[in-house]
Amino acid sequence: MNTNTTAYSELERRFARMSHLGDAMALIGWDTQTMMPEGAAPARARMMASLRTQLHEMLTDPPVKGLLGAAEGESLDEWRHANLREMRRDWVHASALPASLVEAHSRACSACEQEWRQARPAADFARVRAPLAEVLRLTREIAKIKGQALGCAPYDALLDQYEPDSRAQRIDALFADLGAFLPGFLAEVTRRQPAAKSGPLGPFPIQSQRALGLAMMEVLGFDFHFGRLDESRHPFSSGAPDDARITTRYDEADFMRSLMGVLHETGHALYELGLPKDWRGQPVGRARGMGVHESQSLIMEMQACRAKGFLGFLAPRAAQAFARDGEAGWDAETLFAVSMRVQPSFIRTDADEVTYPAHVILRYRLEKALIGGELEVAGLPEAWNRGMRELLGIVPPDDRRGCLQDIHWYDGGFGYFPCYTLGAMTAAQLFQAARRAHPALESEIAAGKFATLVEWLRAHVHGRASSVSADTIVREATGGPLDAEKFKTHLRHRYLS
Amino acid sequence: MNTNTTAYSELERRFARMSHLGDAMALIGWDTQTMMPEGAAPARARMMASLRTQLHEMLTDPPVKGLLGAAEGESLDEWRHANLREMRRDWVHASALPASLVEAHSRACSACEQEWRQARPAADFARVRAPLAEVLRLTREIAKIKGQALGCAPYDALLDQYEPDSRAQRIDALFADLGAFLPGFLAEVTRRQPAAKSGPLGPFPIQSQRALGLAMMEVLGFDFHFGRLDESRHPFSSGAPDDARITTRYDEADFMRSLMGVLHETGHALYELGLPKDWRGQPVGRARGMGVHESQSLIMEMQACRAKGFLGFLAPRAAQAFARDGEAGWDAETLFAVSMRVQPSFIRTDADEVTYPAHVILRYRLEKALIGGELEVAGLPEAWNRGMRELLGIVPPDDRRGCLQDIHWYDGGFGYFPCYTLGAMTAAQLFQAARRAHPALESEIAAGKFATLVEWLRAHVHGRASSVSADTIVREATGGPLDAEKFKTHLRHRYLS
Fold first, then answer.
1. A374, B134, B217, B378: which has the highest count of C-beta atoms within 10 A?
2. Per the domain annotation, does A101 fall within a domain?
3. How many CB atoms within 10 Å of residue B390?
4. B487 contacts B425 by C-beta, under 8 angstroms
């Protein structure tokens, strides 16, 4: 141990230990959603709560504060310095709040979430009004305290939990640009798109869907020596070092839905597997936040795989997987037409690529207003419906298809929504930069060759982990800051050309 | 909190936290053997080592010693008192040794185990002689120190890790009795048994074997709301509260091997699922040790399921599972004849019910002599072969089929072997007591009804957890101490009647 970095080294030791516990929790979380027998759920919840408390106590162990201060006086190279910055971020988020507030918030969230599970199917917003108001009250308090600790505005402190160092001011500008563009663009796309076309009809046996998914994961560069594909009710990507686990849900009537979901999660997994091995177990070695993470899934799904080039590669292989060779409809044009259908709809998770950002912008505006105190819970349904009319031109017939649809707020998740669309914008901008660097990129992808794209992402995104901000990653990878124009270019090219 | 049990309550809180971490480690251990992608193995090993260190630090945290002392002055009811005794046992085993010795032992074991993996297939005992001598040297030191801390002989301190409170003196007497009986009994059985008979011939498709295994698990009373059956290279039983996980390995040529293994592991799982819910997460709520655990698997496999009664229930269901209804050989007599074949052999894990205890008695005698200093590593092969001749009348042609066959010693596992045969003896004695209490027991089992047996075990074994010693469990369940005569009666009845 270098005696000049004693405090820093001790922090590395402690964070490595915490990281191992965090990895264990991630694997058990995977198990909960894929393998756990139903009856184990209550015992499992208690176990996870206990592990979370343990991790929190390790992070807020009294010596940590002094070690962070002492390490700041030590001579550290760039990555160690960044690591120390990320350690402090973790510590501030964990230690800023009094334990009583954390506990009250956690109780309020689980009470509210339980009510929401009843309220949503019944479209009964009145039922969640009081518990959501309580969650909001506590979240505002948390945002204020964390904002003071981090030196930023309250809502920015919530963003920082998911998208470190991002600020509402920057998102405001990006979303204002995109929000102004979308309604007109949407009108033009829906006006010009041909009548709905149906793709190949099922049933598509699950075993064949799985085999096709595995094969396409390998095409993208996923190495099954270091990961798995399983099933779960809600698809996700998780795992531990050298152990990337993604899941999907199969629909016998629609193979594209599961397949595109698998390719999306494969993008997340390739990011995790591409993080630098030397910094495993340290905060600086983690993925850079949810926006960048989402960009890695969307660059695979939306930029690479939903393009006509890849669909031309996919079509005959899919036909073969389902033993439907020679039938009509197994061609790039049909798959593209089906996959690119644009239609304003009420539910975010069913939305297409064009309308999805409108859903996110709406939620972003509303949650910022809720945290800022310009909007109260009682006014949420009306504000929601007004926003839907403005951005998508439709008004949900009830709150089930309106402000009750997403779990996020009811479970205390404020500050997460913008990541989805920041990810989509980042994906478009990164893909355009990769194409500039490698003019043959799209023809390679159309031939099922992803190595160039993955290597470019490793060099410019994965390998940087959390050593710099998301903004720096984007600037240095693409030559400029995140810019809505790039995403608009992508949409125009895909839907109007 | 009762102010009279402040220290005790604090210990309960701490042990609950440790238990949750232990459960997490058990689930991840399950994952390692069933789900983990191969490439994750090195990272997984580091994660597990880190979690083990964390758990060890929690157990040996300085305040624990004082809390144990203070709690002994508090007024505790019977179970809390027993819980405190088990907490102290955990603590003594964890804290008796200096960290340097634990580490040296751990390093010596993994070095020796690695050599053993090369030495076994090559039948090259010379290769492991030095590393095993080092493991033995350190194990003797550990045994001596733990013996002083526990107030028992060194070898007893090793036994105590697996079979709490058991003593070599008692095992000596039991094994002397059985060891004197076995050679003559074996000669008589092999002389009288008919010529080898072959059972139904495969292949038996794995899917059908799995379906039959699941069905028979349900017959025994396994509730899949609280558990799973999976595949692994080495079958085992593991899990967490309300979450029993057993595994098997399928052989397409032999369905009985996997099926009987599944029923064996189901016995382990029913024990875990039957532990008292009120004492979950506390040391007193755990299973009572490896001997009792083995008795619960063997009571299902050997006492209940390999009996002609159950085989008569199984035979037509197995025939149906493999779509072989109406073919010859699918009857209790044939399955029994195949399953009861006795034949001295070199490898313990392939041994039948009659010769298995001879393997265990040999290992017990040798490991006791090794720890006691009457035998050194250099003399092991010769002592092994002499014992095989004496107990089984055969001498292995090489050390691969002799003293190199089991991983236990090479990985530092001294004191475990006797549990296998203590379990077999306990199973026989418990079964005979259950039959006395319920004269219809065997006819119920022959009709596929296990509720009476399982309820009896819940009341007399499972529900007692670690509140009393294994000896007390046996005495109170059967009316007397563990007695080799009961096992001999079982063997005589099954093999000579």
1. B217
2. no
3. 14
4. yes
Write down the residue that tokens 């073969």 correspond to: A320
Domain boundary among B124, B152, B180: B152
> Considering only CB atoms, which chain A residues are within 8 Å of B46?
20
The residue to which tokens 């995790």 are assigned: A272
For residues A40 and A153, state if they share a domain: no
| Closest alpha carbon within chain B to A225 | B39
CB A292 within 8 A of CB A87: no
Please tell me the distance from the alpha carbon of residue B263 to that of residue A388, in angstroms, as a whole number.
59
Q: What is the DSSP string of A301-314?
A: IIIIITSHHHHHHH
Q: What is the CATH number of the domain that holds A393?
A: 1.10.1370.30
**Domain count along chain B:** 2
pLDDT (tens digit per residue) in A84-115: 999 999 999 999 999 899 999 999 999 999 99
Nearest-Cα distance to chain B for A206, in Å, is 17
Q: What angle do CA B424, B425, B431 make, to 5 degrees?
A: 90
A8 burial class (0-12, 13-18, 19+ CB within 10 angstroms)? buried
> Which residue type sits at A469?
S
Query: Do B146 and B113 have their domain in common?
Result: yes
Q: Where are the alpha helices (DSSP H) in A96-226?
A: 99-122, 125-150, 154-162, 168-192, 206-220
> What domain range includes position B478?
153-497
Are B486 and B424 a contacting pair, CB within 8 Å? no
Q: Which residues contact A114 (CB under 8 A, 6 or more apart)?
A: none
The amino acid present at A455, given as its one-letter code, is E
Contacts of residue A281, defined as CB under 8 A and 6 or more positions apart, other chains included, come to A15, A16, A19, A20, A241
C-beta of residue A59 within 8 angstroms of C-beta of residue A22: no
Q: Find residues 1-40 of chain B whose CB sits inside 8 Å of chain A.
A: 16-17, 20-21, 23-25, 27-28, 31, 35-40
Measure CB to CB from residue A54 to each of B17, B31, B47 and give the nearest one. Answer: B17
B290 and B419 in contact (C-beta within 8 Å)? yes
CA distance A64 to chain B (A): 17
Whether B252 contacts B332, CB under 8 Å: no
CA A404/CA A348 separation, integer angstroms: 11
Task: Determine the Cα–Cα distance for residues B246 and A345; give it in Å rounded to an integer.
Answer: 46
Which strands form A237-240's sheet, in the order they lie side by side? A227-231, A243-248, A237-240
H or E element, residue A353: none
**8-state DSSP, B305:** I
Closest among A330, A301, A327 to A314, alpha carbons compared: A330
Assigned domain for A106 exists = no
- Is the backbone peptide bond immediately before A235 cis, with ω within 30 degrees of 0? no
Residues constituting chain A: 497
> CA A469 to CA A160: how far, in whole Å?
11
Q: Distance (Å, rounded) from C-alpha B221 to C-alpha B458?
A: 12
DSSP assignment of B192-217, as one string?
HSPSP---------HHHHHHHHHHHH
Do A10 and A91 lie in one domain? The reply is yes
Best of A20, A56, A246 to mutate (most B CBs within 10 Å, chain B): A20
Q: What is the mean pLDDT of each run of 10 residues along chain B (497 residues)?
A: 76 97 97 96 94 94 97 96 98 94 92 95 98 98 97 97 95 97 96 86 96 98 98 95 97 96 98 98 97 98 97 97 92 90 95 97 98 98 97 97 97 97 98 98 98 98 98 98 98 94
Sign (positive/negative) of CA torsion A27, A33, A38, A41?
positive
- Which amino acid appears at position B63 of this protein? P
Beta bridge partners of A240: A243
